[in-house]
Amino acid sequence: MTNSVVDAPPAQVPDELTPGRSRWHGLRPYLPLVALVVAAVLPYSTLNLPGIFEGPLNSPGTLQLLAICLVFGGLAAGYDLLFGRTGMLSFGHALYFAAGVYGTDILVTEAGLPLWQAAVLTVVGGTTLAALLGAVALRTVGIAFAMVTLAFAQVGAILVARDFGGLTGGEEGLPLDVSGLPPALVGVTNTVNLYWLALAYLAIVVLVVHRVSASPTGRVLAGLRDDERRIGVLGLDPYRFKLVAFTLAGGLASAGGVVYVLIVGGASPHITSSELTLSLLVMVVLGGPGTRWGPVLGGVLYMYLDHRLTAFGSSEAVNSLPAFLSRPLSQPLFVLGTVFILAVYFFPGGLASLRSRLTPVLTALRRPR
Amino acid sequence: MNTVVLLTLTGLGLAALYFLVASGLSLVFGLADVLNFAHGLFLGVGAYATWWASGNLPGAGPDGFGFVLAVVFGVLAGSFVAVLVELVLIRPLYSRTIEQVLVTVGLSLAGVALLQATWGADPRPFPRPDWSRDVTSVLGAQVPNAGLLLIVAAVVVLGALLAFLRWTRYGLIIRAGVENREMVTALGIDVRKAFTLVFAIGGAAAALAGALGGVYFGTVSPGQGGSLLIFAFIVVVIGGMGSVVGSAYAAVAVGLLQQFVNYYGTSGLGDLCVVGLLAVVLLLRPQGLAGKVAHA
What we know:
The structure holds two protein chains of two kinds. Chain A is an all-alpha fold. Chain A has one domain (54-366): ABC transporter involved in vitamin B12 uptake, BtuC (Orthogonal Bundle). Chain A has 16 helices and two strands. In chain A, helix 3 (60-83) packs across helix 12 (294-313), helix 7 (191-214) packs across helix 8 and helix 8 packs across helix 10 (238-264). Chain A is globular. Chain B has a domain at 23-223. Chain B has a two-stranded antiparallel sheet with strand order 1-4. The radius of gyration of chain B is 19 Å and the shape is globular. Chains A and B meet through helix 6, helix 11 and helix 15 of A and helix 4, helix 9 and helix 11 of B. Chain A: It is found in: Cell membrane. Chain A: Keywords: Cell membrane, Membrane, Transmembrane, Transmembrane helix. Chain A: The chain crosses the membrane at residues 30-53, 65-82, 89-109, 115-136, 143-164, 184-209, 243-268, 280-305, 333-354.
């Protein structure tokens, strides 16, 4: 042991002295802004990407798919506030999203309210619902908390499916009555406005989540994730902070529901199912829980794959495979579930950790032999 | 009176189905701390294996001894899948609870999709013996035989499980492991063998629930396990994680409550009452009816 010689680590070269990197380093803080601008002007492009999208970028179908992806990116970022940043495993997040979707739909279609009133009422209602249910559910911790949230979400699913009072349309869903909506949000030609709405939602969620996690409250949340008892010893009340995170995430999810119902043009009962929460969990874990961009990336990618894998599954390349391969591959959930299991084993940090995982490989390759 | 008897017996049939799913779930959670979302998959495998066997396995069929053979095949298949899942996917992740939950979540998504890919999303008619379609007169009420079959099966499984836990060496290890896993390991006993065993038992019980549930509902579909699983979770939480007897009591309470309220109130109200019961139990007695102790 004493004889072993330890190699001296190579001297660290300060980043600003490395040639070629300094120019880009100054730009890094502005990259999200650049990405936002690129995403905002995307609908002006008529670029055709065969195999990736069915039509050119500015066609309504592509824009709608992108808008759905963006909304789910925002939802995943909001869910990450619970799972990745506070360490709460909630299986009932679909409930608040569904509250946003059905709340807006019912207020606009059945009650005939103008959209902005319906949206405000829905977000306030969804946030209140999250606060009330969170206050009960947070009396338990860990796995029991997961179970209670799952049960509450199940109540929502039952209420929607059984159609009490004839409000939700039951299994058939409830198409959105577009006659009272602002004309800029209605019709195939105006899909681009919905796309921008979804982009704005995503930007707001990302901003809120970042502001919260950078604030003193966010540090307490991270502390709760790592060691809840210690937060208690420091004299802070874990219950209150968790309730704040839960309520905020619920409010963000119901706002996402408002945007989603406009994009899709109606509500259907499958969004209340526990499967939606499970897929949010999959998105966050695939992207990288607790990271800045991981959940957003995971959400966008998951929804994209979920939609496009159906087309991929019925394509020629898959159909020409033998049946025992082509049939499972035509099920998007089979592919995504398998990828997810592999990710849990081999990429615990998700997509966001790809960079730090590849760095040692790249440096090893670059080192002169 | 007739209605009450009928509702009680059908409620108990439902409770039997819940118990078969929940007992394995509860033991797995109590011993290995694994919240198993893939348990619904074991149920699906059992149902489809029974369905397949009665059509294709020589000697098996929809009636008489052939039906027993088909069910046995289904149970073995469910048990085999459960052991495989434990050995390949769960075992490398022990003591990492969140990752285990995530893996079982992924497995439940992928597994159900695989069933759907192989046999289609539509419900398939389940081959069932003719006598299971008939009714038996109990105290003046006409009770479907399939429900009675479920009750008998659940009572047999409950008795067998309790006998196993009380009088065998492995039962002793499982009971001790539920109470204090570290201590069992410290005494030099490989508690992981007990994990595999518990998965096998849980998978077999769930597969039995799948096969008999197929007889009860008359059809088999890929998503069947998922909807039962949520109520089984509720049963496990109400009964107390790790307690077989607690699961049995909770299953009876949940099944009867659901059946009676759904009949006398609006349809669907019973499901809501069950969740209400869960909230009450959690607020008053968070460890469940029996707590985290495997009572034999």
